[in-house]
Amino acid sequence: MVADPIAVVGIDCRFPGAGDKDAFWDVLVRGEHGISEVPAQRWDSADFHDEGGGAGRVNTRFAGFMSDPDTFDFEFFGISPREAAAMDPQQRMLLQASWRAVEDSGTDPTALAGSSTGVFVGMMSSEWATLHMSDYAGLTAHRGSGNGYCMAANRISYHLDLRGPSTAVDTACSSSLVATHLACTAIRAGDCDSAIVAGVNLLLTPALSIFYTQAGLSAPDGRCKPYSGDAVGIGRGEGVGVVVLRRLSDALADKQPIYAVIEGSAVNQDGRSNGITAPSRWSQEHVLTAAYAKAGITPGDLTFVEGHGTGTTLGDMIEIKALGAVHAGAERKQPLLLGSVKGNIGHAEGAAGIAGLIKACLALDKRVLPPTLHADSESPQLKLAENGIRLARGPVRLPRGTVRGAVSSFGLGGTNAHVVLASAPAVRRPVESGGVGVLTVSANTVAGLQRNIAAVAETVDSAPADRLGQLCHTSNLVKSSLRQRIAIAVTSPEQVRGELRRLLRDADAVAERSKRPTGKPRVAFLFTGQGSQYAGMGRALHEHCPPFRARLAEADAALRPHLGCSITEVALHGAGHDGLDVGETALTQPALFALQYALATALGDLGLRPDAVLGHSVGEFAAACAAGVLALDEAAALVAARGALMQALPRDGAMIAVQAGEERVSALLADEPLVSIAAVNGPDSTVVSGAAEPARRVAAALAAEGVKTTELVVSHAFHSPLMAPAAAGFAEAAGPLPVRASAVAFASTVHGRFVEGAELDAAYWSAQVTAPVRFTAAMAALLDRAPTHLVEIGPRGVLVGMAARAGLTGGAKRLVPVPGDTATGAEFAATLAALYTDGLNPSWAALYTEGQRTPRRLPGYVFADAERFWASAATVRGTVASVVTKEQPGMPEVGQPQPAAQAPALSGDVRPEVRAVLAVVAEIGDYDPADLAPEAKLHEDLGFDSIMVMQLSDRLTEVLRLPEPIPVTELLPRVTTVGDLLAFAGEVLGEQERNR
């Protein structure tokens, strides 16, 4: 039965000489290696080196060592320094590489939380456990949880909150390729929809080097020379590699970039062969043919094999015989190409299979098979040509069309794995340029933000201009969920590159822009009234913003039966019908409504829904739609009728803005029945409206008192007694309206307070025609809801400025998505960017066209590398905090971090017992007390797990001198942050004193 294809969608790795997958590819394609002398940090090679490889000695000083495997961004994962120091470094390496590999797949790792994603880790040794678990005096709970193959997989599942299978595999050298096979099987069986597959190996002791030497397998120069006449044995290597797997159909549906496709795989065992450590040719043959059968291919379909290729005489010979038995007679145009990554990085043992798999995936993706080191001295004994095989001596360009390769990995104890790969299917996806987007970068700290801005900037600099929208979309998918955030509204490559360069030069700007209040934004929409209209309003947004364009079309369709023309044409170009244009009330009001409806619902499509709404005059209709009180067709009919009724009235009125309060103006209106207050826009901002002559008399009287007045350019005296005939006709039009509850708080500018949906009936809309607009009172009521952001929903910024002048913003940020006739569309994106930075998590996809919603690969998260945790000590903040508990000749010192001795510095009059509580937190987590801010969360920020919470409970009992321990069940619900804990300690002490 042919297996379902599995896509490799994400990769990350660190190997000798290569800090990431791009550097790894450079090492491969350039034919370089990462073999070096044993670093002093590992073990003193002089104590164990003996060229003859005598008892207890090794015959080489060389192997493939990674650079800086001890660095770990413990804060990023919410792990305390004490726990980080107690963890197997392999677990730390896996955490960071897994995060980056998931990002590489075009997925935000936090988005996997709660999913059935599986984790499969291959590893064959834990020298950390050898060093630490036998140190009984120094054994701690965290050393226990930091040990074990299972925990290597389980820790990834825990930190990413994954609910699928989570297992570690040890089949010696084939561990990580067997893990790949198991992951594919689990996906096909439905146990998980995607899988993180990893292999890891770290050389902390010379133990296996001694074993290889004593077994006659170790190369004196520490180098693997696969299939070479110069091969004399194994050279060890280390590293970590992670791939992300998904069903091919799912990956294609989500437009994920695909490195390669796993078409089939097989695993078997040598059984009772000619020795438990000796390979079996027959089993290797069988695993190859089984994998090809599951993939539905013949041996002749393969272009290359990434072999096991350790460089041992027996191992290479048996592998070639097995390959030849299967491939020599196959129909093919060219010999089977063969290589092995072990020439570049050494034999990475538990990570060897994943290293070969990653090499093969990159080769298929880039259509180049890298050279195999030492191929120039091909071993004549292997008779490669007779077996239909040719070593890849230099970079080989792979042919067009579907190309297939395979990867072999054979375990020391006889467990074999073979995986068949094919190049990714060719998919033509259109690339669309133009439009606006938002580039996002997030991190757990401001310093992390600066590192990651630099990495993203490098990618943006080198990207083609037409990929900018795709990069923005990808950054929203992958780089947007962490606490510290930067967002840039993007209109052109030059603009975003310039902004990124500015941020890289100005660290203070990054810190300032990434500041945000705690919690989610509380947003109020302010819907602008008549007078803000102009020909061309919304034109740029219509051109650049797909959701606005779609929602404006909805409003157009709803209004067309009532208007007999396209309101889109009216808004964008000013022209209507029957000689009317956007300046005529019959079209002005529908045009404003259409733009406001489109703007509010487009923001809603992007995940921004208001907590409260306020509309100024005709703006209340779109506000009612946003609140769920009016349906679009109902509001469209009302607005069209309202505009037509007002248009039909005589043009014999006037409206005058007065810089005086309502009370002062009202005193002059008692003798003018045809003039009334039309709007109260601030403490000293009032509008009067009515018949022209008496209105001007009122204005003249006020001017004589030194009050500034300005006659407005209007077609009619709105919100005045002259509107009474329109109100009467409008009552009939609004009569059949259903009454609905408001889904969003509605601040009425008729009543100057919040109203329920039932109050927004036909009588309300009829009264609204003549009633004054009580903007000041409505804004004051709105401020009781403490909005963090005021967003103007209209063709220009009117109400936010009016509110600011009236002192009615309450410190809320003011955002204007369409700032007037100079709008470019970028302001809409900038509104989203500002709200995102302040805690909103938009539904970004709607911002982009279909052609832009294709993920592109961005650089993986750049973790902090200043903090170091090694097997022999924890080096934190530049100082080694360790105590030697056990020494062996030539072995690393085994240490444990010491509690921080420095008393925490607290300001103010703080009781000694409370100071002691803070010192306990620092001691348990091995933190610098200066880092313990009151808002720091014990679990998420400081890594306080159940073990540490129990320790905290015990220590609190001691320092607070309690008669009995505080139950953890009582402590956990009440204590979230350091500040909570200190307050809790104060309460406990106070209660003790009261009870004395």
From TrEMBL:
Pfam families: Acyl_transf_1, KAsynt_C_assoc, ketoacyl-synt, Ketoacyl-synt_C, PP-binding
GO molecular function: [acyl-carrier-protein] S-malonyltransferase activity; fatty acid synthase activity; phosphopantetheine binding
Gene Ontology biological-process annotations: fatty acid biosynthetic process
Record keywords, A-Z: Acyltransferase, Phosphopantetheine, Phosphoprotein, Transferase
UniProt cross-references to InterPro entries, sorted A to Z: Ac_transferase_dom_sf (IPR001227), ACP-like_sf (IPR036736), Acyl_transferase_dom (IPR014043), Acyl_Trfase/lysoPLipase (IPR016035), Ketoacyl_synth_C (IPR014031), Ketoacyl_synth_N (IPR014030), Malonyl_transacylase_ACP-bd (IPR016036), PKS_assoc (IPR032821)
Top enzyme category: transferase
The enzyme's E.C. designation: 2.3.1.39
Residue span(s) of domain Carrier: 908-989
Listed name of the protein: Malonyl CoA-acyl carrier protein transacylase
Lineage of producing organism: Bacteria, Bacillati, Actinomycetota, Actinomycetes, Pseudonocardiales
